[in-house]
């Protein structure tokens, strides 16, 4: 093995997980030689770095090279529709295209995770401290808004590599949204990272006029013992018997690891690499004539994804000041000149929150679940659904609208990632099975009804009907609002 192709550790995929692991390993006191391999490019351009385009970039043409844009197989419960699965490509992975929302998870989620893996390190008490070490929160909230946002001194991070902002500017409409929610009776949180359930203001991973990505946070000061190779898609893991000893790229180039080979290529590509390496269900490996390294039936199975619907309602004229496309062009120009203006400092605009459904335990669909699932869902802080509402001025129409995703938490349906062929260049087969379990259908419909009621019966000046929802029955909601990962009405398209 040539020295230049041999490392202590090889890390595959430079997304969130890969950037953190490679950088932390390389900075340990023994200074191991670490190779980080990324399929995509270096993402050195700036088109993805504009904070004000956080909600538009991933679905724009400019993101073509940074987004795999996978498609699911036609979904039975969604009338045969295919769903677009967005995944980031290049340094930073999905953080190069994501929507910049940042909050800690809910208390109960982490405690359940710790229980499932039998390791207290994953409990809320311990992970909360890690979240704090990871972030530097820049909270510039003016005193007049402290009634809506306030984190207890010492409860958030001040020295971590991930810069998170709560800017001093608030989008027109945010205060209306929060006061409407409070008056309607929605439980409110002044710190959405407290681990509790309720609605509060969402912070963003943007700072100094730029998007914050996994590579800007973890690869900005790389030591010489960390080598990064982009445009290096890994085809398979190399083995000596059952011991992983390195990887082979699609080009045929091989790299070797004397210590460990770490696969961190994301929830879809990691199982694909394992399957191509002969690790997975025997019948699937056989069907593609892939020699078996190790039979592991779970690889690619039990894929869980939180599906969502998007509710959008136009608002009465004058709810927020109107903006035009020429305003947007001017702001973009300003950002290009000096990274300032509304494109550089995206104002606080979106609220976020996790909620329970009061009557969950009375649903037949809940009662039919197994005991373990029921125990988790009944815990006081296990959410049934999540929302992220905002009020947006739309420069394409001069009007404004209220919009929110309604996201199903703890889906009981499970999907599957499998191989299309033994060719590493082929996209994997993604079977989501959204809403296959009756519990998921019931909870998504009931949660959507709750949000529909808020839209029509709070002081939000919404114009009926909600876009695309002409009826209010369960069937109307299921058929007309069925999950949209590839939004039919891109929610933030050119909207600020
Ligand atoms: C449109 C969108 C919006 C989102 N919004 C938010 C948000 O607001 N807040 C939030 O917290 N999360 C959000 N997320 C999710 C979040 O970004 C991801 O959960 C997170 O980045 C996943 O990290 P990862 O390391 O598992 O995978 P990724 O970040 O996806 O990284 C995987 C990397 O592996 C590389 N790779 C794949 N195959 C190979 C191969 N064969 N060889 C070498 N490299 C390979 C990929 O190119 C990629 O760079 C969003 C995601 C998307 C797509």
TrEMBL record:
SUPFAM superfamilies: FAD-linked reductases, C-terminal domain, FAD/NAD(P)-binding domain
The entry's keywords: FAD, Flavoprotein
Keyword Flavoprotein: yes
One Pfam family cited in the UniProt record for this chain: GMC_oxred_N
GO molecular function terms noted in the UniProt entry: flavin adenine dinucleotide binding; oxidoreductase activity, acting on CH-OH group of donors
Cofactors: FAD
Residues annotated to bind FAD: 234
InterPro entries listed in its UniProt record: FAD/NAD-bd_sf (IPR036188), GMC_OxRdtase (IPR012132), GMC_OxRdtase_N (IPR000172), GMC_OxRtase_C (IPR007867)
Coiled coil: none
Domain Glucose-methanol-choline oxidoreductase N-terminal: 266-280
Entry similarity comment: Belongs to the GMC oxidoreductase family.
Protein name: GMC_OxRdtase_N domain-containing protein
Organism encoding this protein: Trichoderma simmonsii
């Amino acid at each position: 093995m040539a020295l230049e192709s041999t490392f202590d550790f090889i890390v595959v995929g430079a997304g969130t997980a890969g950037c953190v692991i490679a950088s932390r390993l390389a900075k340990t006191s023994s200074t191991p030689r670490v190779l980080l391999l990324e399929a995509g490019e270096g993402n050195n351009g700036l088109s993805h770095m504009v904070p004000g385009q956080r909600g538009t970039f991933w679905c724009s043409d400019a993101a073509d090279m940074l987004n795999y844009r996978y498609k699911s197989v036609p979904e039975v419960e969604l009338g045969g529709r295919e769903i677009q699965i967005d995944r980031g490509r290049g340094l930073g992975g999905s953080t190069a295209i994501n929507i910049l929302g940042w909050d800690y998870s809910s208390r109960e989620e982490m405690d359940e995770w710790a229980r499932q893996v039998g390791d207290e390190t994953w409990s809320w008490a311990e992970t909360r401290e890690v979240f704090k070490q990871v972030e530097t929160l820049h909270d510039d909230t003016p005193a007049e808004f402290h009634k809506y946002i306030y984190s207890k001194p010492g409860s958030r991070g001040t020295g971590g590599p991930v810069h998170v902002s709560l800017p001093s500017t608030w989008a027109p409409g945010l205060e209306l949204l929060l006061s409407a929610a409070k008056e309607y009776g929605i439980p409110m949180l002044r710190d959405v990272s407290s681990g509790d359930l309720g609605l509060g203001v969402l912070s963003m991973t943007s700072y100094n006029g730029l998007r914050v990505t996994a590579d800007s946070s973890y690869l900005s000061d790389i030591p010489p013992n960390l080598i990064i190779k982009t445009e290096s898609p890994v085809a398979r893991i190399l083995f000596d018997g059952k011991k992983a000893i390195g990887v082979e790229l699609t080009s045929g180039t091989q790299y070797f690891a004397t210590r460990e080979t770490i696969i961190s290529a994301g929830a879809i590509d990691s199982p694909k690499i394992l399957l191509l390496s002969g690790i997975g269900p025997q019948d699937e490996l056989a069907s593609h004539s892939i020699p078996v390294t190790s039979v592991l039936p779970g690889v690619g199975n039990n894929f869980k994804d939180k599906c969502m619907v998007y509710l959008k309602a136009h608002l009465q004229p004058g709810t927020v000041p109107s903006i035009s496309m020429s305003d947007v062009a001017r702001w973009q120009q300003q950002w290009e000149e000096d990274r300032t203006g509304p494109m550089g400092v995206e104002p606080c605009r979106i609220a976020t929150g996790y909620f329970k459904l009061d009557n969950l335990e009375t649903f037949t669909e809940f009662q039919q679940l197994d005991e373990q699932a029921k125990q988790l869902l009944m815990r006081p802080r296990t959410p049934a659904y999540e929302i992220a509402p905002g009020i947006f001025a739309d420069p394409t129409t001069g009007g404004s609208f209220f919009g929110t995703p309604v996201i199903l938490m703890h889906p009981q349906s499970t999907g599957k990632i499998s191989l299309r062929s033994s060719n590493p260049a082929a996209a994997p087969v993604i079977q989501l099975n959204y809403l296959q379990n009756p519990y998921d259908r019931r909870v998504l419909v009931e949660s959507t009804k709750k949000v529909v009621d808020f839209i029509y019966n709070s002081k939000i000046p919404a114009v009926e009907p909600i876009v695309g929802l002409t009826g209010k029955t369960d069937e109307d909601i299921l058929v007309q609002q069925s999950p949209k990962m590839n939004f039919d009405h891109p929610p933030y398209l050119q909207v600020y």
